[in-house]
Amino acid sequence: MSTKPAVNGAHKAAIRQENEEQILAAAERVFADFGFKGATTARIAEIANVPKANVHYYFSTKEALYRRIMEDVCDHWLEAAMTFDNSADPAFILRGYIEAKMDLSRVRPYGSRLWAHEIIRGAKFSSEYISTTVKNWLDSRVEVIRGWIDEGKMDDVEPYTLMYMIFATTQHYADFGRQIEIFNNDKPLTDAQFAEAKENVVRIILKGVGLA
Amino acid sequence: MSTKPAVNGAHKAAIRQENEEQILAAAERVFADFGFKGATTARIAEIANVPKANVHYYFSTKEALYRRIMEDVCDHWLEAAMTFDNSADPAFILRGYIEAKMDLSRVRPYGSRLWAHEIIRGAKFSSEYISTTVKNWLDSRVEVIRGWIDEGKMDDVEPYTLMYMIFATTQHYADFGRQIEIFNNDKPLTDAQFAEAKENVVRIILKGVGLA
DNA sequence: ATTTATCTTGACCGTTTGGTCAGGTTAAAA
DNA sequence: TTTTAACCTGACCAAACGGTCAAGATAAAT
């Protein structure tokens, strides 16, 4: 561990932060792979490289750990959502949002997979969050899209269907990453391949709604 | 049970078929909700309305049951895949394929979710199937799309990206069905809403690749 | 130097889990 | 009628699981 002399408990605080981060990262991965019920605290401890009792020392229960990670994933999702503002230029906004979501899938695939698990099993823990924070955001974005349609800036498409298409397509690169890898001759997409995919996704969707 | 007199073991055969179907349906649902590891044989038995020992009487292990259902889901997927043939008319073929996939999500959401679980956790059981049957089919369809592009029938898009977009968008209605339901004021999509979504998905994608 | 607070962790506990078994029931075959 | 085969299932087993605890180590405060 750190050899730097501690001042005012900084060392103990650093120990806590380092261990918590290690456990959170391990847990995100294990929950992403197996879902809440399928994940074991033994496996999380193993990946985090700490004794199982330590997981419980820092996070009282498996569920507490799970909720903590989901909050973090939601915060990250919100950052991408913020790129979708009320600008007058739909092509610019939609391009920015799709790219932000694609990038999120690229840099944090486990978070997306964890979310997918959560939704697939019925959104047991996140139902309220989805029906409030996420739904309010979605409904307000749908109003913005409707405004663009009314102003003749884009085709008259059903806005919810468009948003679901964007969610689905962008998260696919995280959730079904392994399948895409198998299709790519068992190799992860290179940065170039991913950039090309991103550009094609943006292009097809923008043209699909009359913006390119 | 059936009161019809049996002839040549038909009754016993009917018992087996009925019980197997019940267990398979229950298992598909439980595996869809919780994934392989998170699902329990006790839960499957409960949903199937049979004693747990009966599950093992008909399917030796949990894994045998899981593999059996996955084979079935793959067969079903293949049926939709068959709509994508070598026709000269890309708009017609893509529309047919997208619609078949959307319908599959509508009539068999658990199968799609089970598949999603399988892929999210790394395609542990299905890796070979994906890298052979599915990949060969995908690669051959990509060649067909390239042919259409070469003939100037559609835009020069990256065919794999297009196929992933179709997979993602159509399966979203099954895998993230709960989220969509929450966004729909906690009500499942009506048939009319689903038909509208399907039409919009087809329209956006076809236009997005220069086919509408 | 001593005390206090935090960290560490092997061992343990009660519950859950996948799977087995023995004995009984029912239907079909001989 | 008897025998055979298939179905049924409560009880049980060993292993896995989430979580706890006591005792020791370490760092910080007094």
From TrEMBL, chains A, B:
This is TetR family transcriptional regulator. Keywords: DNA-binding. One of its GO terms (molecular function) is DNA binding. Residues 40-59 bind DNA. Residues 17-77 form the HTH tetR-type domain. GO terms for biological process: negative regulation of DNA-templated transcription. InterPro entries: Homeodomain-like_sf, HTH-type_TetR-like_transc_reg, HTH_TetR, Tet_transcr_reg_TetR-rel_C_sf, Tscrpt_reg_YcdC_C. It holds the Pfam family TetR_C_3. It comes from the Bacteria.
